[in-house]
Structures are given as C-alpha cells and as structure tokens.
Write a structure and sequence with these properties.
By secondary structure, the protein is of the alpha/beta class. The chain has ten helices and twelve strands. It is globular. It binds nicotinamide-adenine-dinucleotide and 4-hydroxy-L-threonine-5-monophosphate. Substrate binds at residues 131-132, 269, 278, 287.
Length: 323
C-alpha cells in the first residue's frame, strides 16, 4: 500500500511554543498523521528523537519513533521568549519551503506553527501582517479568506490584520462578495458541506439599527446580501454581531462572516481556544495552523497544550484527502 504524503510543519518562531507543540502533537498522533518538521533541530525540545532527511518522501521509511526533520541551521539556539533577529529570515524561509514542497507534490498540506509578526518585521523586514497574506502572495492569489474552525463554530473575518480605523475603508462590497464566495466554495470543497449556510454580521452595533448607529448596513451590506440570496447563496444578515454566536444562533449557520478580526476571533477563541484551527481558504494548496500564537509567557516550560496543533494537523490531512 502506498503511504499517504506527509503534512509539513513550518517551525514558526523558535522562541515561542511552536517547536514544543509540534513535537508533542507528533508524539500524541503516533503516526496517525504522517509529518515532517521544517526547522533547526537544535530548537526542538531536549530529548525529542528526530532524524534529518532531505525530502519528505524519505519519512515513510523511518521508524515511527523518530520525528522526520528537514533541517536548516539557524545559527544559534532559541531562547524562550526572546526572538533572535537572526532567526527571522530562516523562519520565513521555512514557510516558503513548506509551500514549495506542497506545490511540488512532495507533501499533502502545510501546517504552520505560530510566528511573531513583529519579530519577523524587525529581524527580516517581513512585509506581511501574517501568514495569511504571505501565503496569498506565495500562491499568487489576490484574495484569500482566513477561517477559524472548531466543532462549535466557524468564523471568517472579512477584513483581516488591519487597524480598526481602516476597517470601514477596506470593507467594500467587492471584498465582502469575494469573502462570501471563497468561504462558500471552501465549505463545499474542503469541508464537504453541499449547501453552506452563511450568517453575515453587521459592522455597527445592532447592525446599524436602521441607520441610527451606522450607515453601512442599509447602504450596501443588506443590499449585497439580498443580491447574493437572489443568486442562490443561502445567507442571513446583516445580523447584530453580539447575538449571533450563542448556541441556538450558531445552529442556524455553517460559518459566520464577521466584518473585522476581533469580531470573528473573540467568539471562537472564547468557545474553543484549545481546539480551534486556522485555515486559509482560496489558496492553490492546503494550509492549516493552530489558533494560538507564540505564547512567549509559557515557552520552554513544557506546559503548552498541543491540542490545537493536533486538530490543525488532522484537519490538514482530512482536507488533503478530500482535495
Ligand atoms: N498562526 C500564527 O502565526 C499566530 C496566531 C495567533 C497569534 N500569533 C502571534 O503570536 C504572538 C502572541 O500573540 P498573543 O499573545 O495575542 O496570543 P497567544 O495565543 O500567543 O497567547 C495568548 C495566551 O494564551 C496562552 N496560550 C497560547 N497558546 C497556548 C497553548 N498552546 N497552551 C497553553 N496556553 C496557551 C498564552 O500563554 C497566553 O497567555 C503575536 O505576535 C501574534 O501575532 C501568531
Ligand atoms: N489572526 C490570527 C489569530 O489571531 O489566530 C493570527 O494572527 C494568525 O494569522 P496568520 O495565520 O495569518 O499568521
């Protein structure tokens, strides 16, 4: 029987919890998801048995007791909680390497461990606010969607890593339409939902309350929703964002489209921080990630919970199987 292609994990910020959650997820999964870790093996927690390989396909021939690693010498050890500017370019390269391995057919999907965006900007001039935007550039696509998904909720922010005062400027009918289209297609092809139901949040308190607390809902969000319903999309909204995430409301949709980052991420990280998964939709390859960040406050102490990384790896494999 041919072995499934492995999922590749980019190391993320070595001073954060990325290497430890990757190693603990690999141990917990015990071969259920074939993996290859991309990074400096010196940054793995002490005692993690690993073997350096040069190509992902070599992983299939290894003992299940060793973590396969495609190694890069970052030049210095990782100090927990203190990102080294000299590591930044390597961290970025590991993401790019992961993408090329998937696009070349050597791996099935990319799972990214968390980066510290400011450390990458300061250390290597990283020009992107996050993986999502960098991966869009690597995939040569103009627009992608960041979805966070768990058993209880899927959410998509229509605008992503931008300051709050930029939201009304960058939230346009064209952007919201593309987000709805990409999310709808992603739920069909990557989550197996034939007729996705999407709930669209308003931007303002009480979804504008008839124009008394904001104009965007009446001016263009409601008309866009009506137009897309007439095209066959199953949409509801614009809904007041404060009341669309309780259990009964969540049962009425497959994904919620929020207007900005925190409107989407607060509910899911409150409900399911341990098991939330970040998925980028609209890329020409599969990418998942845990929902947490670098957690400098606990890095290196061996207490980071690998559950979100485990879910991200399982989801990557499942999506690759249905791709
Ligand atoms: N995919 C990514 O690359 C990604 C995702 C989110 C945040 N970040 C980045 O991470 C950095 C830190 O972000 P933050 O502080 O807002 O969020 P964070 O998720 O790193 O930490 C928030 C809190 O949750 C705790 N925590 C996080 N993950 C945990 C785990 N696995 N087990 C136990 N506790 C955990 C931390 O200790 C901290 O108290 C920022 O640079 C941010 O941009 C990156
Ligand atoms: N906004 C995401 C979150 O808080 O979970 C996070 O920063 C990750 O974004 P990228 O996957 O684009 O790095």
């Amino acid at each position: 029987m041919t072995q499934p292609l492995p999922v590749v994990i980019s190391c993320g910020e070595p001073a954060g919890i990325g290497p430890e959650v990757a190693a603990r997820a690999w141990a917990a999964l015990a071969g259920e998801v074939p993996l290859v870790w991309l990074g400096d093996p010196a940054h793995l927690p002490e005692g993690v048995a690993h073997q350096v390989i040069t190509q992902p396909q070599e992983a299939a021939g290894l003992s299940p007791d060793v973590l396969p690693v495609i190694a890069r010498d970052f030049g210095s050890p990782a100090v927990a909680g203190q990102p080294d500017p000299a590591h930044a370019a390597h961290v970025i390269d590991m993401i790019a390497l992961g993408v090329s391995l998937v696009r070349d057919g050597a791996a099935s999907a990319l799972c990214t461990a968390p980066i510290h965006k400011k450390a990458l900007k300061d250390g290597a001039g990283f020009a992107y606010p996050g993986h999502t935007e960098y991966l869009a550039a690597l995939g040569s696509v103009d627009e992608v969607v960041m979805m966070l998904a768990s058993e209880q909720l899927r959410v998509v922010p229509a605008t992503i890593h931008i300051a709050l005062d930029q939201v009304p400027l960058q939230l346009t009918p064209a952007r919201l339409r593309r987000v709805i289209e990409i999310t709808h297609a992603g739920l069909q092809t990557q989550f197996g939902i034939k007729a996705p139901r999407l709930a669209i949040a308003g931007l303002n308190p009480h979804a504008g309350e008839g124009g008394t607390m904001g104009k965007q809902e009446d001016a263009w969000i409601a008309p866009l929703v009506a137009e897309m319903i007439s095209e066959g999309f199953e949409l509801s909204g614009p809904l007041p964002a404060d009341t669309m995430f309780h259990a009964a409301a969540r049962s009425r949709y497959d994904a919620a489209i929020a207007m900005y980052h925190d409107q989407a991420l607060i509910p899911i990280k409150t409900l399911d921080f341990d098991k939330g998964v970040n998925v980028t939709l609209g890329l020409p390859f599969i990418r998942t990630s845990p929902d947490h960040g670098t957690a400098f406050d606990i890095a290196g102490r061996g207490i980071a919970n690998p559950a979100s990384m485990i879910e991200a790896l399982k989801m990557a494999q499942k999506m690759a199987g249905s791709a």
